[in-house]
Amino acid sequence: MAVCWPGSRKEDSPARVVLPARHGTPGTTLARRHPADHHGGMRYESSVTSLSWIPSEAIEGSMRLPFDAGFTHYDDPPPSQLDDIEALSAADKFRFGNVLRAWIEVDGDGPITGHGYSGGGLIGTTTVRLGGLHHTFQNVLLPDLQREPELGDRWVKFTQTVGGRTGLPAPRRVRRAPYIQWQAPLVWTTLTLTIHADGRSQSTMTGASTFPRHWLYDDSGKLTHKSGLTDFRDWSANAFGRHSPWGDQDSEALVTAVETALEHSLSVQLMHGAAKPRIGKLPAGGVLVRQGEPGTEVYLLLDGVIRVERDGERLAEYGPGALLGERASLEGGTRTSTLVAVTACRVASVEASELKRDALEELSGGHRREAAGRG
Q: In the Cβ-directed half-sphere of 211, how many Cα atoms lie within 13 Å?
């Protein structure tokens, strides 16, 4: 579950072969423009999608009041397999979606002869409830930003930014009269997709607003990565105007690999089991546990990135959804490594005895293999 830093790419995956290109005829109606005329070519198409949603642990302090009172709502996590994004949007299951689809045409002897974008932005709604009344506000989608495709040696890279603002305004302090502006901050993601002439494709999220949570899905609809950090305060204060891709700047996205099925199952037990989890914060550079010290708590990383160190050696970094600290309970109650916050973090913890020992042993085995693989 390694961290992918800005600009990094996921493993290669094959683009879909749509059909042989025909003289003067596009291979699919998804294409926005026709390839150049040629015979015997091949058309490759691929995609990457992000969904943006609001988890309950991402909002703190007084800003939780309208959510906890039922005035508005948090979002349940989107599915790990994305099969029907239109149905999810109609059911108000996410706030914004960025669907980047693209295609290339390749001549029989290898040169790329055509390329184009497809896809675009999807937007959800915001429902407000007061007593027995409710009203749904349509969120505002800003124009999609599609950069001119970058052509390389037998590959084309596509970059698309999609986002907007919620339909429900929010108060924000400004320096000039009337000193309060009623406008919701902006939400966005910037995705890149590279398609090669041999059919391989690569994708990643290179930029995103610092709120809410953004999940990344590959061409098959499989959840592959998550944004590693949410910062509601920074977002609510700064995600306006020029401090956005529609102004003059983007925010780099810290992206982490998705947790395993075992971690997901254990995290549900930790958060909803008989024992109420303890929620804590850790500043960047803070130490959660130190090697050699006693301890039997298991930690679920809710937000941020944590690094694992042993004997001064950096072994791995983990993002939201990771469970850590299980080995101490399995090996005599002594911490076998140090956990250091790479970014500001929020963690939940329970005693290891609240979780099944065989599941913790399986989790520990997975962590050992990951550490060995990086050695």
A: 23
CATH for 293: 2.60.120.10
Taking the C-alpha atoms of residue 301 and residue 299, their distance in angstroms, rounded to an integer, is: 6
10 and 158 inside one domain:
yes
Tens of pLDDT, residue by residue over 199-229, are: 899 999 988 888 888 899 999 999 998 886 6
**For residue 245, what pLDDT is reported?**
67
130 shares a domain with 268: no
Last residue of a domain, one of 222, 257, 292: 257
Q: How far apart are alpha carbons 35 and 37 in whole angstroms? A: 6
Residues 159, 90 within the same domain? yes
Provide the whole-model pTM: 0.67
CA distance 71 to 305: 31
Q: Are residues 128 and 100 in the same domain?
A: yes
Q: Which of 257, 290, 320 is the endpoint of a domain? A: 257
- Rounded to whole angstroms, the Cα distance separating 230 from 305 reads 11
Q: To the nearest 10°, the Cα dihedral for 79, 82, 87, 91?
A: 20
pLDDT band at 29 (very low <50, low <70, confident <90, very high): very low
Contact criterion met (CB below 8 Å) for 146 and 158: yes
C-alpha distances out from residue 149 to 242, 247, 251, Å? 24, 21, 21
The pair of three-digit structure tokens given for residue 298, joined into one six-digit string: 């298991």
Burial of 269 (0-12, 13-18, 19+ CB in 10 A): middle
* Residues with Cβ within 8 Å of residue 309, at least 6 apart in sequence: 291, 315, 337, 338, 339, 340
As a whole number, the mean pLDDT across the chain is 76
User: Are residues 204 and 347 both part of a single domain?
Assistant: no
Number of domains in the chain: 2
How far is CA 95 from each of CA 55, 127, 129, 317, rounded to the nearest angstrom? 11, 11, 17, 28
Query: Are 252 and 364 members of one domain?
Result: no
Angle subtended at Cα 211 by Cα 210 and Cα 217, rounded to the nearest 5 degrees: 95
Question: Do both 249 and 265 map to the same domain?
Answer: no
Instruction: Choose the most confident range, by mean pLDDT, from 23-32, 50-59, 317-326, 365-374.
Output: 317-326
- Domain assignment of residue 119, given as a range: 3-257
- Give the pairing of strands 13-14 and 278-282: unpaired
Q: Are residues 177 and 52 located together in one domain of the fold? A: yes
